[in-house]
Amino acid sequence: MNPNLARCMLVLLLLPLAVLGAKQPLAPRPAAYASEPGGSGPAWSPRMAALGRRLFHEPRLSRDGTLSCASCHKPELAFTDGKTTAEGVQARKGTRNTPTIINRALGARQFWDGRAATLEEQALGPIANPLEMDLPLPRALAILNADAGYVAEFRAVFGAGPDEEKLALALSAYERTVWSVDSPFDRFLAGDEAALSPSARRGLELFGGRARCSECHTGINFSDEEFHVLGVSKDPGRATVTGKPEHTGAFKTPTLRDVARTAPYMHDGSLRTLAEVVAYYDRGGNPVKNLDHRMTPLKLSAQEQADLVAFLESLSGRIVELGLTSNAEPAVHGK
To answer: At 271, phi and psi to the nearest 5?
Structure first.
């Protein structure tokens, strides 16, 4: 293997091992992500995740009964929706692009601005959000408690009927099952050198080298889970959470897993293709007061930009719902 390529792979993969104290059953994770930090979460069971999957696809959790979580997080689009910004009940337009939930079990914080510390905290936000499902949580719980099937399943899983905590635990238990595995890049790491095209190999070398992508898109999940100012829009971003002026315009680094399926891109959906994304970084973004110091022109050739896109496309794998029981067969999407 090309020594430079090997060094780039090492840059991507060297992260400290997570210390996971398994005192209770935890959600499973694919072996490829065993060294990634984060993702331990609360107690988990396949039946809890199966209940969460049912709730994830439940349109009655929206004000007019037309939307479920899966309406914006479509499995066939790598759990995104293909729209510039999210669209809620009555076609209400959100302000940010729908992020994927793939590998979010590894997330240090949730949402583009990191306002939720955990998946459990995140899970209920879209239900009550007026621009999304717009259903007050007391009404959502009343609907679930009036359904004998849901009450029975909540009791079987938790020992009691639906409440906010249990609803959040069930939804997040399902979200913790969604992983991307077996991409061409993964097969390349496992020793199949034919899994990546020559263009994608050149892109990998650029990714960890001169293009400097791996400075933020680190590890096997390709995200440092940090917040950076890229100059994309006037949205205050992370500053709305922290109140710190230096966080104005900062947004969380997304995973690049299955990124070829999650267009459009950036927190505002303003870039339509991966080629546009690479071109944006190549010119160093837009000038703003607190632009991240790493946002400088890269001066890549047209071929080098195409090679980066080829590498990014190699990160699309099979999307699996890991650990679900047979009464809710895991959906497998992708190659």
So the answer is: -110, 125
At 194, list the tokens: 């034919």
Q: How confident is the model at residue 10 (pLDDT cuts 50, 70, 90)?
A: very low
What is the tens place of the pLDDT at every residue in 59-90? 999 999 999 999 999 999 999 999 999 999 99
- Tokens 């993964």 map to which residue? 186
Cβ proximity of 112 and 96 under 8 Å: yes
Q: Which residue has the tokens 């899966």?
A: 70
Q: Looking at the DSSP assignment, which residues form a beta bridge with residue 228?
A: 251
Four-residue CA torsion sign, 212, 215, 221, 223: negative
**11-36: average pLDDT:** 64
